[in-house]
Specification:
The structure holds 2 protein chains of 2 kinds. Chain A is α+β, with helices and mostly antiparallel strands. Chain A is 35% helix and 24% strand. Chain B has one helix spanning 119-128; strands at residues 2-7, 15-21, 39-45, 51-56, 59-80, 94-109, 114-115. The chains are: A alpha+beta, B mainly beta. The interface between A and B is large, with 62 and 59 residues. Chain A: Belongs to the DCC1 family.
Chain lengths: 384, 138
């Protein structure tokens, strides 16, 4: 506690009011609406982030602002009050100081009446917008050669600084969002690479492995990049191919191709734009998969759906990565695709949903109707 | 668009205070447009407890000092023109939010005001009870 001192004219006088004493509360000489001053309620644990200037407010004029720390995103909501909230600044803040001491009486001055305060709620980052922005102009094969028409090429290209300006997500969330989209930074711009181009790259890599007798479990980064470059692929994209389809072994420059990612890639290639009978799909899939790899239908969880028509089972592409991340939109598309879902089919399409404060069970309760004809049958989920 | 939240106070944020009461304080019409420096009332702490009275005109409110469950930051919107940034920024000014204070306590008056006009009556009561030696005066 500070020692009581006559002449304190601000918040200290109010907060440290001694027993048996009285102070005057008056309107500040600069009292006014002061709309540029606002109150933000926040959790004690976020305080260090704010005091060390690690938070930022993000949003376009037509969006509701969010507050981002390094790792999380919070919605900002204004909560009004009907009480009179008199704000009393401390006396030592020169811009608000008011050194009136009337007849030796202490006066604490009210600078503003606060109409309410802003509150924060943790929310999922708005990464669908990131996806939308990056898919405006995916990297395509033509770009390897054509460099002239810069004007046209630069349209729909975004640097990191553009993305943090436009996407409501924290830096960490944005970074993992870029990774989830398999985006790559090319000449300073974050890009997704066209699927056909990735297919070309992967085939060339597999082809070269056969020619050069490389093991798909131990690919030397320099060798791979050199060979792909000599085939006309830019260095950056050759590296990107290893990042997308492989995992680094140890900390060196050796890569192991990821069996699931490679197999899923070929399944998607086969099913692009058409549905296939199960047998013919499986036959072609097995044929396309590189030697030494084992494909199994389980790998396609969250990538394909099957349906029975008479005696035939058909399979078609339905990738979770193509679905929106907002739960309401996600469930609406899911039930458009299929009015009734069994849990084992549904789970791969909703397990990535991230709603702070709401579990997967909570989401199901909110967005689905659960029916279970008899106890021994699997529950079925339909639209609410 | 990004708005940086700036803070120049480091760990030692100046503490502001809130005096909060229900409803509104009406100002007499003749002072309506010159509130500056006008007295609102007297804040008194009659005992060593965290109990306070706030006397506004003929009304007395009783309340207490309560810690906020979560702290409130006082933010000020500042427009900064980028003088040092060369290359002619198309945005004339960049908006920043500056942390200028923190609030951890408020003196909250959540009861209805007691009219001080009724004081004469209480003195009458006191006098009536004077024969019973000690009378608590509230």
């Amino acid at each position: 506690m500070e020692e009581p001192c006559l002449g304190h004219t601000g918040a200290e006088a109010v907060l440290n009011l001694q027993s048996n004493s009285t102070i005057f509360i008056a309107y500040h000489p600069h009292f006014g609406s002061h709309d540029d001053i606002m109150l933000l309620e926040l959790d004690e644990k976020l305080l260090p982030d704010v005091l060390h200037q690690r938070v930022v407010v993000r949003g376009q004029p037509d969006e509701d602002s969010v507050l981002c720390t390094q790792s999380k995103t919070y919605a900002i909501k204004f909560v009004g009050t009907s009480n009179s909230v008199f704000l009393v600044p401390p006396s030592d803040q020169s811009e608000f100081s008011d050194n009136t001491v009337e007849n030796q009486q202490v006066v604490a001055s009210v600078f503003k009446v606060a109409p309410g305060s802003m509150e924060l709620t943790e929310v999922a980052p708005k990464l669908d917008k990131l996806k939308m922005l990056l898919f405006e102009n995916p990297y395509r094969a033509e770009e390897d050669t054509e460099m002239e028409d810069l004007e046209a090429i630069n349209k729909g290209l975004y640097k990191w600084d553009d993305l943090v300006d436009m996407v409501q997500a924290s830096d960490d969330e944005l970074r993992s969002g870029l990774q989830a989209l398999s985006a790559v930074e090319i000449d300073g711009y974050w890009r997704v690479v066209d699927e056909k181009y990735m297919d070309m790259l992967l085939r060339m890599l597999l082809h070269s492995s056969v020619l050069n007798d490389w093991s798909l479990d131990a690919l030397n980064e320099d060798e791979v990049v050199n060979v792909l470059q000599s085939d006309g692929f830019p260095c950056k994209l050759a590296e990107h191919c290893l990042h997308v389809y492989g995992n680094k072994v140890d900390s060196g420059c050796v890569w192991k191709l990821n069996e699931r990612t490679v197999c899923v890639h070929f399944a998607r290639e086969i099913l692009r734009g058409e549905k296939r009978k199960m047998e013919s799909f499986m036959e072609e899939w097995m044929r396309k998969i590189p030697e030494g790899m084992q494909a199994s239908f389980d790998m396609l969880e969250g990538e394909v759906l099957t349906e029975r028509h008479g005696v035939n089972t058909w399979v078609h592409a339905f990738s979770v990565s193509s679905l929106p991340s907002a739960p309401a939109e996600r469930f609406s598309i899911l039930f458009k695709e299929r009015p009734k879902w069994e849990w084992k089919d549904l789970e791969p399409y909703i397990r990535d949903l991230n709603v702070p404060g709401l579990s997967l069970e909570g989401l199901l309760l909110k967005f689905t109707r659960r029916t279970q004809p008899t106890m021994d049958k699997q529950p079925v989920f339909s639209a609410r | 668009m990004q708005i940086k939240v700036k803070c120049s106070c480091g760990e030692k944020c100046p503490e502001w205070a809130i005096v909060e009461l229900q409803g509104v304080v009406d100002v007499q019409p003749q002072f309506q447009d010159r509130l500056q420096n006008l007295e609102i009332g007297q804040l008194c702490r009659p005992s060593s407890q965290e109990v306070y009275t706030f006397t506004v005109g003929y009304h007395e409110l009783t309340g207490s000092k309560v810690p906020l469950k979560k702290p409130l930051l006082v933010l000020k919107k500042v427009k900064r023109s980028d003088v040092d940034r060369s290359g002619g920024d198309e945005d004339s000014a960049r908006v920043e939010l500056e942390v200028i204070g923190i609030i951890r306590h408020r003196i909250l008056f959540k009861t209805r005001p007691k009219a001080l006009i009724s004081k004469p009556q209480s003195t009458v009561k006191e006098r009536a009870g004077a024969s019973d030696s000690i009378v608590p005066i509230k």
